[in-house]
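Annual report, structural modelling task.

Input specification for the alpha-D-galactopyranose complex:
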Amino acid sequence: MEVAMYRRMWLACAVAIAIALTALPAVGGMTIKQSDLTAQKAPKGAIWVDSLGIPSTVTQDFGRPQAGRSVDGRPMTINGIVYAHGIGTHANSMMKIILDESAESFISMVGLDDEVKEEGSVVFEVWVDGNKAADSGIMRVGDEAKELRVDLTGAKEMELRVTDAGNGIGYDHADWAGAMIILKPGVKTQPRGVVVSHMFEPARIASVKPSPKPSINGPRIVGTTPGRPFIFLIPATGEGPLRYSAKNLPGDLILDPSTGIITGSVRDAGEYIVELKVEGPRGSATRELTIVAGEHKLALTPPMGWNSWNVWARDIDDAKVRAAADWMVKSGLAAHGYQYINIDDCWEGERNEKGEIVPNSKFPDMKALADYVHSKGLKLGIYSSPGPKTCAGFEGSWQHEHQDAKTYAKWGIDFLKHDWCSYRIVALNDSREELMKPYKIMRDALDRCGRDIVYSLCQYGMGNVWEWGAEVGGNLWRTTGDIHDSWNSMSSIGFGQAGTEQYAGPGHWNDPDMLVVGKVGWSANLRPSNLTPNEQVTHITLWSLLASPLLIGCDLSDMDQFTLDLLTNDEVIEVNQDMLGKQASRVWKDGELEVWARPLWDGTMAVGMFNRSIVNAEVTVNWADIGVTGPQPVRDLWLHKNVGTFNGSYTETVPAHGAILIKVGKPKQK
Ligand code: GLA
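The model returned the following structure:
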């Protein structure tokens, strides 16, 4: 059909409808009734948004976008009304459509899908050429669908956004029901969806090229119990061969000058300020290390290392643990302070006739394995449950706690993750007393086993464990359920730590679970983390500010440069390992923008600027919110850059789902 003729017919048709339905609001030249939006077929001159191939271009925080269905793939239904077309999405989401002046108007019914019975609330927004053109206000489960109409005359692009209404994304199944674009008569170009690039922008971090000049990294303080075996690898980078020496090392400790491994045991309780020195062909470095000897002085900084679960899960075996130890050194991670090699579940066999736990056939000789890990200056961790069975169904420690602690000590274990699992069938009820009971028993067993074993509680945060984890002698306690490599999982866990800060400190840490950067997959399908680069920056920034254990969960033999850049930035690690041990607090929040801060031992403040939204946004840190005044130097820790001196505040654009970590103030040297 000729364009002119088509145009005439279309106009005639539109005029006829408009005359017939004058009572209905019209946008552009054509009137659309709400009943048109539940139809199978679009009126002439209009197209369904889900016909544009748009779902593949939608960015959303949970699930996958669906064409003509809810986010869970059911018929799209709002308040009992079913729609054949539309986009089923989930907050927070954004869909960008390029119009290039091809459209007259947009119309859609919006609401939460009936498939959600629980609490859920969202706001639907339509943005045209950078300005908000319509917004639904807060919509909740059970609300009637609302109609959004927007004039698109002359518009270049449109964005359909759904935000979580400020209360998190739980149950936010959001439908753009019957979403339709009314085209300008006779247009040749069609609207098209594009991927929102903000979400996939490269991370804003510098690549870390270790300087050939020696540097001593990692913790500045370490604890031990007098008379028990001590092992510590001095984390140092720089062109080798490196030679290590130490002044004021307590009597019975020996430093191997060529490996930097300190072994032996400290005889007397006390605080020893040791001056470490590392020399290489390109210079030397010195640093104080405080060794604290006394009862219950372990984990004076958050444990750093690796755990087998997020990568190998059930497939862990002796060879994989040895490989992890090898790669911990070869990859350079050990030189930045990572020291624990932790075996998670699935190493356990049956008990022998004496009731002692015996590893399964994948672990032929646990003592030999521990010796191997120790030979590299690293430490070996293990896993058990206070219940009869572990979460994966292996033998737990119930009623064998003292025996197991002695076995671990005999093997040379340095860390125990004690995972509630089947203890739920032993516990009489869910009172705090019952929650504490098994952990007190194992604490007592560890105290009597003759070896320093860091004690890691894992019971997913039940009974506000942070309020009593230290009282039962935990060095760290999981505050949440298991983490996964999705934005929703990582960010809700990380930002959800707000309010737990008063319970953390040297020797007792909140544990928001292991890291999900690098290749993970719980053995099934190893893949690069599903977090975008900027989301990974948020992950490591938050965990550093939160003084969380840094337990890497990926395949250490297969890390790309980006993963190494994230994990080996010494300035970021310094924040995590800071001697004051103060967990950051959230000091400011406006919608999806947040500022978190923690004081550091050198008198400065570490400050995280976060953008949880799906578009890049400016964040301002006000000096008043972080307790400083006057002009203050600011250093960007991810970029390794002094960005200048600022009076009153500091503002920077933070990438979508990304973070910036700065240090504010002039460091006082100790
Ligand atoms: C629980 C824990 C995980 C992991 C598994 C092992 O789910 O929370 O971290 O240890 O058990 O079975």
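Residues 3-20 form the longest helix (18 residues).
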